[in-house]
Every structure is written in C-alpha cells, then in structure tokens.
Design brief:
Structural class of chain C: mainly alpha
CATH topology of chain B: Cytochrome C Oxidase, Chain A
Helix content of chain B: 55-70%
Distance between the termini of chain C: 49 Å
Distance between the termini of chain B: 35 Å
Order of helices and strands of chain C: HHHH
Strand content of chain C: under 5%
Strand content of chain B: under 5%
Number of strands of chain B: 2
Number of strands of chain C: 0
Number of domains of chain C: 2
Structural class of chain B: mainly alpha
Number of helices of chain B: 17
Chains: A mainly alpha, B mainly alpha, C mainly alpha
Order of helices and strands of chain B: HHHHHHHHHHHHHHHEHHE
Shape of chain B: globular
Shape of chain C: flat
Number of domains of chain B: 1
Oligomer: heterotrimer
CATH superfamily of chain B: Cytochrome c oxidase-like, subunit I domain
Number of helices of chain C: 4
Strand order of the largest sheet of chain B: 1-2
Helix content of chain C: over 70%
Largest sheet of chain B: 2 strands, antiparallel
C-alpha cells in the first residue's frame, strides 16, 4: 500500500509534511503550558490583570498583529509563486515576509524598552511595588512575548535559509516541500500571536 | 546476488571510517546500538549511585557519606535512571533497531533527525554529568525538581535542568520519527492490524512523547527562567502558586510513566507467542489497550499530588480517574496469560525474563491501586511504599522486559547466540536480589519510613539491612547477565537468521541485517503471529 | 491549492476580524469580553489553518491528527481547573 515510499523514503513529501505537522503539535503543547499558567492566574487575579493590561500600548499591539497577518499572506503567496515557477517573485515575497518579521521584532524591542525604562521588568524594584496579580501579569507578558519573539526570530532565520536555497534552485517548482514546511512554521507563529494579542492587549 | 549485498550493516560503513562511521551514521541500526551502549553506560552510573545509597542506609546514622552528599546521590540516581535510562530505554535502542525491520522498511522516516536525537541525548547526558562536578555542587532537589527548593538551592540545578531539557528534545524527536515512520513506511500489505504489537506499543508511545514531553520542556524552561530572572510564577510572595509547578511537572511525568512501560509491554507481547508457539490471544484488544493506556495517562497526573494541598474535588476526581488505567493494563496481563495457556512452552531465557516481568509488574500494578485510592494514598504517600511500588513497575516491569527483549533480539542484532545456562542463572540471581532489595520497602513504608531520608529510627534497621544485602545480590545478577551477553558478542556461536522460529518480518532477513535491511521489499499477506 | 485571489480574501477577513476584536474590546462587554476575544482568535486561527496552511486541501489524516493536540490541551487545562477552580 505504501510501496513507493519504501523505495524512495528520502523523497516522501507527504511524510515530510506529516513530520512538520507533528513538530507543530509539539510546539502547540509547549505553548499550552504557558496558556495554562495564564488562564490559572487570570482566573485568580481578574481585576489586577485588567488594570495591568491597560498600561500596554494597544496601538503597537494592533499594528504588530496586522504586520504578522500580512507577512503570513506574503508567505503563502511566495509558495504559490514557486509552485507556478515564478522564482523571482517568490524570492521577493520571501524577502518581504522576513522583513516584516524583523519589523515585528523591532516593535517588540521598542515596547519592551519603554516598559523597562519605566522600571517594569521581572524582579525589578519598580514592579515589586505593584500588586501580586500585576507582578504575575507582567511576568507572563515578558515570558510569552519573549518566547514568541524567539520563534519569530527562528522563523526569520528559516526563511533566510529558504531564500538561499531558492536562489540555488534547491527549492524549485518541482520540489518545494522545504519552503512549504517553513511556511507552516511561520503561519503557526502567527496563530500564537493571534491568541497572545487579545490575551495581553485587549483585556478591558 | 553480489557480495556487496551480503555484507551486514557492521561491514558497510557509509561515508566515514572508524568511530565516525558510528557517531555520524544515519543507519537506524547503528543509531539503535549507539543508544543501547550509551543507555547502559548511564544505567551503570546510576546503579553505582543506588548501591551507594543502600550502603549508606545499611545502619542508622552516618555510614559512608554526609547528608548533603546523600541528597545529591539520590537526586542523580533518579535523574539518570528516569531521564537517561528508562525513558529513552526500549524505544530509542531496541525500538530504533527493530521498528523498521518489523514493518519492512529500509530505515526510519527521518534518518538525520534520528541521529540528531542521539546527539541531543548525549549532550543532555553530558550536561547532567557535568553538573556533578562544576558550579557549587551537584543538584540536591530530587529528580522532581520541586519548587520552591529547586529555585532557592545554591547547587547546580540550572545546568542539570538544562540537560534534562535536551533529553526531552531528544525523546520528542524519536517519537516524531517513529509515528511518521509507522504512517508512511509500512511494507506493501502491512495493514494496521497486521502490524506486530511491539509496533503498536511504539506508535502509542510515540504519541505520548509528542504530546507530553513539550510540557516538560516548558516546565524546565520556566524553572530556569525563575532561577535566572525571578519572574515569581511559583513564589507566593510575588503572587505565584507553587502547586502549578507540580501540575505542570506531573502533566508530563505521569504520561512519561507510560512512555516507560508501553514499549516494555510491547516487547513481551512479541516474546510470548514465539515461545508458547501460540498466536497471541486478543490481538486487537492488546493493540487498542496500548492506545487506551496512552490516552488515560493524561487524565491521572493529580494522584501524585494528593498530599500537596490540591482542592478536595480534584483529589476525588483524580483518584477516580486513576482506576481507569487499571482496565487496559489488566487487559494486557490477562491476554498474555491466556496466550500462554495450552501453548507448547519452551522455557528459554527470553520467556523466563518475560514471566518474571509479568509477576513483578503485577505486584507493582496492584500496589498502584493502593496508591491511587485517595484514602490509602494519604497513609502511604511519601513513604518507602511508593519507592517499592515504582521500583516494582519500573525496574521489575520495564527493566526486566528490557532484559527479556535484549535476550530475544540479541541473535538478530549480533548474529551470535549467548550461552543459555548463564543467562538463566543470572535471572535467578537477579530475581532473588530484586525481591530481597525492594520487598522490605513495602513493609518499611507501611510502618512509616519516609522516602529520601538520610537517617532513620532503630526500629527500621532490620528491613534496611535486608534491603541493602539484596542490592548486592541484584548487582551480582546484573554483572552475570551482562558478562554473558558481552562475552557472547565476541565469542558466541553463530545464531542463524531465525533461531527462535519467530514469524515477524525481522526474522526473515539475515542476522545481522544488511545495510538497508531487506534484499527485496517484503510483501505482507497476513497477521504477524503465524502460530497455532 | 488556492490562488492569490483567495489568499487576499482570507487576509482581508483576518484584518476585518482584528478590527472587530479591537472594537469589541473597547465596547466593554464585561464578562463576555474574554469569550468574544477568544472566539474571534479561534475564528482567525481556523482561517489561517484552513487556507494559509492548506488544511482544507490536505488528506484527511493530517486534519484528523490535529484533533489529538487540541483535545490533549483541552484535557490538560480542563483537569487543572478542577484544582484551581475550587482552590483560588
């Protein structure tokens, strides 16, 4: 039934995609540990979460959401381009995607530095003056956006590798599963942000 | 047929020479053997720690080491045994070697990721060992790394925890690889219900590795983050809740119990039909019970926390759910026994080790019911009863099944046969030593001896003494068994391709198998156990 | 596989949902606020999964497997609330 795979298991695209999805499952479960902490502490400190969240910059959060959603669009389009044999277009779209990833990180850096310059960071004397729920909220904010940021960074590196491979025609209209899997990863990182955004910026 | 095809995988080196032909190999058989040797290397380190602990406990008061050293020794014994021996244990070593052979594939789905997982394993193991000798002393938290102590202690917890994190990555990658392999690389005609039951158990284990290990990863990262930055997630003075650490830890570590035992159950399910010359009784029931155990493993973690201060409702819920696990475990035990019934039993050493496994695992499993019931748990929690229980399931269960599988597949892996009489003698010594070592712990526990204590009241002296003597007998048994096996790698008689008359696919190729396992792709036409 | 046109439509939908969730957060829905924002986030991730990640066009196997982590996560968080729901 799977005869062709045994002979050519090194070029089993379906297998490569299943492997990537399973990897994304592990990432989902990894983040679920953090969402567990978030939901537990939000149920414990509902008011303090609200007052702490109102100090985050909602405009920055919304802007970053739009940036990541748009980068997901260009990522999807770049796969479409390589599939239809337009290498130059695909390269342009991949570069755009990673560039938007960089903008996202720069925004995050600006947001973090603003908070840190106000003396709000884990274990800081300034933060310790706040209530317990606020300490936990900012702890979760730094941890979740930090780990998410690391994933964005990893995604940018992956896309950079793809740009090189596409340029060398190692990724082409005939075999683009590596680019497809990179895309899956990038979209997954986007989905995580889709949840982080309301959970941190939109508690009113 | 050319001479090239006749060379076993030991002969075809690939691109590299010498040691590099092993540590850079992507052949699943070589990686399996890399794992096998490194796993038993770490096993012996942990055995030495265990023997030292028992020696310290031979009499009340200080015997050979300080209390601080004792804390470090039981921590390292636990960390190495759990994360470096018993979790990777059967799947990463024998599973790696046998899985592609049993489904008729040339290799696993991602050979390079397979090699990478071994490198993660070795790096993690090295980090754990280095944490012994660097920084401000070896970790002394116990293998569970409970907060708040693990955050406050000045010992080298961060490095050890990072090592365990790497081991978690390694385990996840193995699971990812095996699940994809089973989905994609089965030989023509190998339908799901024609797969050997060892494969079913590895498949179920793979899913637990995929869907539970990341929780451990994030828990350990949180612990490291707490130690480095002081977020306060588990510190009540900063609004945190220490119990959430225990939740996260056991959300992984209870399913991990089934990562340890499921492959062991799968291995004995292979051995029983071959030596009873009987088709396995209840094939589908055993296959589904593997999946059921994997699923039920997620529902019961709270029974590790009955005395930690959870809400009363959750204690009742978790206690009730815990009994669910007994059902699929019971199905397996009854089916094994039923398969032996009216068989033409050949009492060769793999079967003897298997029968010891069923006996010891049953004791471990039944005492598990005592721990799972809320009322009795509160009485025995944190005592030697727990220590006895998990050594009966993990050592008496998993490790004895590991030894059984090692004897069963030894001729396939090496092409040679070990000597039968020393293997049986070693089992006798092992089995005796095991029970003398661990059975007194049940009694000690019921009498109230707390686990992890350095010192104890004189009334416990007799049972501790018996237990320590048992540890010497057990080690003697281990040495006898490994001496026989290692000697036979070099001096054993040629075994032939199918010495046991097994009917699964790995016995249809040569011993040891050639580089890509089969001379031609096997075609499967029926179930795995073609016996009466 | 979808073409560029469909991708743009999905992107427009995602942006619209983002606008909706920001507006809803300002509307002061009280206790329903969290429910609304999580529902909108779920809707957005379904769009991304189905179209950008091609789940709509994949074989049944991958779509079926996706339920495993989702159920696992629901069970993990749900059972934890048997403790903290009655303790905090």
């Amino acid at each position: 039934m799977n005869n062709e795979n045994i002979i050519g298991h090194k070029t089993d695209y379906e297998g490569a995609k299943i492997g990537m999805w399973i990897f994304l499952f592990t990432e989902m479960v990894l983040f679920s540990g953090l969402f567990l902490l978030y939901s537990a502490y939000r149920s414990r400190y509902p008011e303090e979460f609200h007052s702490a969240a109102s100090e985050l910059n909602r405009f920055m959060g919304t802007f970053n959401t739009v940036i990541l959603l748009t980068s997901s669009l260009t990522m999807a389009l770049s796969i479409n381009s390589i599939r239809t044999g337009r290498k130059g277009m695909s390269l342009l779209l991949q570069s755009l995607t990673s560039f938007m990833g960089l903008i996202f990180l720069v925004n995050k850096y600006i947001e973090w530095s603003a908070k840190i310059s106000h003396g709000i960071y884990p274990d800081s004397p300034g933060l310790m003056k706040y209530g317990k729920g606020e300490i936990i909220f900012y702890g979760l904010y730094y941890l979740l956006t930090g780990i998410h940021g690391l994933h964005v960074l990893a995604g940018i590196v992956l896309i950079a590798v793809m740009i090189v491979l596409t340029n060398k025609d190692r990724v082409s209209s005939g075999r683009f599963v590596a680019l497809e899997n990179t895309g899956l990863y990038w979209h997954f990182v986007d989905i995580i942000w889709v949840f982080l955004f309301p959970l941190f910026y939109l508690i009113s | 047929m050319t001479a090239e095809e006749d060379i076993s995988f030991y002969g075809s080196r690939g691109r590299h020479k010498g040691v590099l032909s092993w540590i850079l190999s992507t052949d699943h058989k070589r990686i399996g053997l890399l794992y096998l040797t490194s796993i038993f290397g770490f096993f012996f380190v942990a055995v030495i720690f265990g023997v030292l602990m028992r020696l310290e406990l031979i009499a009340p008061g200080r015997t050979i080491m300080s209390a601080q050293t004792y804390n470090a020794v039981f921590t390292l014994h636990g960390v190495i045994m759990i994360f470096l021996f018993i979790i990777p244990g059967i799947p990463a070593s024998l599973g790696n070697f046998i899985l592609p052979l049993q489904i008729g594939a040339k290799d696993v789905a991602f050979p390079r990721i397979n090699l990478m997982s071994w490198w993660f394993y070795i790096s993690g193991g090295t980090a754990v060992l280095v944490s012994l000798f660097t920084g401000s002393g070896p970790p002394d938290t116990g293998w569970t790394f409970y907060v708040p102590y693990s955050i406050r202690t000045g010992t080298n917890v961060t490095l050890a925890v990072f090592g365990v994190f790497l081991l978690g990555v390694s385990s996840t990658l193995t699971g990812l690889n095996f699940v994809t392999t089973v989905h994609r690389l089965r030989a023509p005609g190998m339908k799901w219900f024609r797969m050997p039951l060892f494969i079913w158990s590895l498949y179920a284990t793979g899913w637990v590795q995929i869907l539970a290990t990341p929780v451990l990863a994030i828990t350990l990262l949180l612990l490291i983050a707490e130690r480095l930055f002081g977020f306060g997630f588990f510190d009540p003075s900063k609004g945190g809740d220490p119990l959430l650490f225990e939740h996260l830890f056991w959300i992984y570590s209870h399913p991990a119990v089934y990562i340890m035992i499921l492959p062991a159950m799968g291995a004995v399910t292979e051995i029983i039909p071959v030596f009873a010359r009987r088709t396995i009784f209840g094939y589908k029931a055993i296959a589904f019970s593997s999946l059921a155990i994997a699923a039920a493993g997620y529902l019961v973690w709270g029974h590790h926390m009955f005395t930690s201060g959870m809400s009363d409702i959750s204690k009742a819920v978790f206690s009730f759910l815990t009994f669910i696990v007994a059902i699929p475990s019971g199905i397996k035990v009854f089916n094994w026994v039923a398969s032996l019934y009216k068989g033409s039993i050949e009492l060769r050493s793999p079967l003897l080790y298997t029968v010891s496994f069923i006996f010891l695992f049953s004791i471990g499993g039944l005492t598990g019911l005592v721990n799972g019931a809320l009322a009795t748990n509160i009485y025995v929690h944190g005592t030697y009863f727990i220590v006895a229980h998990f050594h009966y399931t993990m050592f008496g269960g998993t490790a004895f099944a590991f030894f059984a599988a090692l004897h069963y597949w030894f001729p396939k892996i090496t092409g040679r046969m070990y000597r039968e009489a020393p293997a049986k003698n070693a089992l006798l010594v092992l089995f005796t030593g095991f029970n003398i070592l661990y059975f007194p712990m049940f009694i000690l526990g019921i009498e109230g001896m707390p686990r992890r204590y350095y010192d104890y009241l004189p009334q416990f002296h007799r049972d501790h003494l018996i237990s320590t003597i048992g540890s010497w007998i057990l080690v003697a048994g281990l040495i006898m068994m490994f001496y026989n096996l290692i000697r036979s790698v070099f001096k054993g008689d040629t075994a032939g391709d199918n010495p046991w008359g097994g009917s699964t696919l790995e016995w249809t190729t040569s011993s040891p198998p050639p580089h890509e396992n089969f001379k031609e792709v096997p075609v499967v036409t029926g179930g795995p156990y073609k016996f009466r | 596989m979808p073409g560029p046109g469909l991708y743009f439509l999905v992107w427009l939908g995602l942006i619209a949902l983002t606008a909706l969730t920001v507006i809803a957060a300002g509307a002061g829905l009280g206790a329903y606020g969290a429910l609304t924002s999580v529902s909108i986030a779920l809707a957005k991730s379904v769009l991304i999964l189905m179209f950008f990640m091609h789940l709509k066009y994949e074989k049944t196997l991958i779509r079926a497997l996706l339920f495993l982590p989702v159920i696992t996560i629901a069970v993990i968080i749900g059972l934890t609330f048997f403790d903290i729901g009655y303790r905090y």
